[in-house]
Amino acid sequence: ETGVTQTPRHLVMGMTNKKSLKCEQHLGHNAMYWYKQSAKKPLELMFVYSLEERVENNSVPSRFSPECPNSSHLFLHLHTLQPEDSALYLCASSQIGDETQYFGPGTRLLVL
Amino acid sequence: SQQGEEDPQALSIQEGENATMNCSYKTSINNLQWYRQNSGRGLVHLILIRSNEREKHSGRLRVTLDTSKKSSSLLITASRAADTASYFCATDAVGSSNTGKLIFGQGTTLQVKP
């Protein structure tokens, strides 16, 4: 589980706050992902970065803004979120050509 | 639309019994994976089966794939309390392998009672 780390593990924020989620992978991978996991719903893919370029954006609202400064780090910048954005946000990484993804422990987000 | 659907949604068994979970999907795939998630944690990859394979084993895990029925099953034999977790199937879609895009099912919550 230490291959992919996420901080913070828990976050409570108001709808007017700005916060960032951080993900770091120590596996030498070249693709990274953000997923949202809400109760009673399947895991939803939000963003995919391959070789530090965004290659997938699944119609995610603009209040979520990803950033991938290098192949080891991935951020998710949050601003003016809604209560329905409360969820577990999971980061994952993989090596291009290898279908297996390695997940971090997630950030549990509560928007008040 | 949702790619993977799993059943049952919840399963409760006694330690030592076998647990079987099923997954159905809708489009053609290159491969299907199973992941496990302990409560509130990240997902852990268990096993991958390719579209040209019918069965695969890994320790106490046995996965089958029937591409004609677009379905897969995960069997955990001789279950242990530590197997208590949620189990998800994930599929890629033919043509999506370059992006690594996986589509997950809703998962089966397994409880193994000691």
Model description:
The complex is a heterodimer of chains A (112) and B (114). Chain A is mostly beta strands. Chain A has strands at residues 4-7, 10-13, 18-25, 31-37, 44-50, 53-57, 64-70, 73-79, 87-94, 102-103, 107-111. In chain A, the strands form 2 sheets. In chain A, strands 2, 4, 5, 6, 9, 10 and 11 form a 7-stranded mixed sheet that branches. The radius of gyration of chain A is 13 Å and the shape is globular. The model of chain A has no long low-confidence stretch (mean pLDDT 93). By secondary structure, chain B is an all-beta fold. Chain B contains no helices and 11 strands. Chain B has strands at 5-7, 10-14, 19-24, 31-37, 43-50, 55-58, 61-66, 71-76, 85-91, 103-104, 108-113. In chain B, the strands form 2 sheets. In chain B, strands 2, 4, 5, 9, 10 and 11 form a 6-stranded mixed sheet that branches. Chain B has a 5-stranded antiparallel sheet with strand order 1-3-8-7-6, with no helix packed on it. The model of chain B has no long low-confidence stretch (mean pLDDT 91). Chains A and B meet through strand 5, strand 9 and strand 10 of A and strand 4, strand 5 and strand 10 of B.
Features:
heterodimer; A: 112 residues; mainly beta; seven-stranded mixed beta sheet; four-stranded antiparallel beta sheet; 11 strands; 0% helix; globular; B: 114 residues; six-stranded mixed beta sheet; five-stranded antiparallel beta sheet
Main pleated-sheet profile of chain A: 7 strands, mixed
Strand content of chain A: over 45%
Instruction: Give the helix proportion of chain B (percent range).
Output: under 10%
Q: What is the number of helical segments of chain B per DSSP (H or I, 4+ residues)?
A: 0
Q: Detail the poorly predicted runs of chain B.
A: none
Rg result of chain A:
13 Å
**Separate helix tally of chain A:** 0
SSE sequence of chain B, one letter per element? EEEEEEEEEEE
Q: Give the overall average pLDDT of chain A.
A: 93
Bulk shape of chain B: globular
As a percent range, the share of strand residues of chain B is over 45%
Alpha-carbon distance between the termini of chain A? 30 Å
